Fold this sequence. Notes:
Elements: H1 3-13, H2 15-27, E1 38-40, E2 44-49, E3 52-57, E4 60-66, E5 69-79, H3 86-104, E6 111-117, H4 130-133, E7 150-153, H5 159-162, H6 169-181, H7 195-206, H8 210-217, H9 226-251, H10 256-263, H11 267-277
Parallel strand pairs: 5-6, 6-7
Antiparallel strand pairs: 1-4, 2-3, 4-5
Helix pairs in contact: 1-7, 7-8, 9-10, 9-11
Amino acid sequence: xxxxxxxxxxxxxxxxxxxxxxxxxxxxxxxxxxxxxxxxxxxxxxxxxxxxxxxxxxxxxxxxxxxxxxxxxxxxxxxxxxxxxxxxxxxxxxxxxxxxxxxxxxxxxxxxxxxxxxxxxxxxxxxxxxxxxxxxxxxxxxxxxxxxxxxxxxxxxxxxxxxxxxxxxxxxxxxxxxxxxxxxxxxxxxxxxxxxxxxxxxxxxxxxxxxxxxxxxxxxxxxxxxxxxxxxxxxxxxxxxxxxxxxxxxxxxxxxxxxxxxxxxxxxxxxxxxxxxxxxxxxx
Length: 284
């Protein structure tokens, strides 16, 4: 599985985050699902086509139980761009789950899939149902079962709805909302519970590798907020700018003393940069 695919699923795999997403998006923040009522559902289902066994894989799926009673299987699918065939994909995921239930010989239960769209440039502009996907003859349409996707545009949620989230997903939703509305991000002081998972999700959804760089610097168990994360990103950016300036001065063959004075780097740091780019230090 690609690293991107893994990173975008980790945060939602935590029961507290998964339950929070469903409680807010489906139940308006009411605590209908308790994290302890969730168990992992195998995201992969197999089917046979052209004589070969193939697999369909969801992003994240969990069973919702009340004691020994299975209430539903709930799946989450992440999208950064509109997909014109999303309804076909969802009906495939749901259908394979129903098929697995039939094959198990046990009780059957409903399947619900939520599509989480993280786009900030525009609303979802692809079909949201089977009927919208096809050009169907009007006389045939009454006999074609429609299948609508449960689409939630995270960057377009209202602030009041974002405030309903209790888990780290509030940080994620707030990030995408602010990026859409003001083009920038002013973080809340909330501490991040699942640091690596939040930063990993932001990295793959924004393609901004600075989140990954900071993630690698944070020690396991260290408590940080997005304020502190952005401070670290800013500090790394400033350090990189100073390093680039020193490299340019080395290429210009400026004296070591001058480079030290302007860049505030130590002699050892400057010599290391010179060795890195293969130039000789001007001893002055």
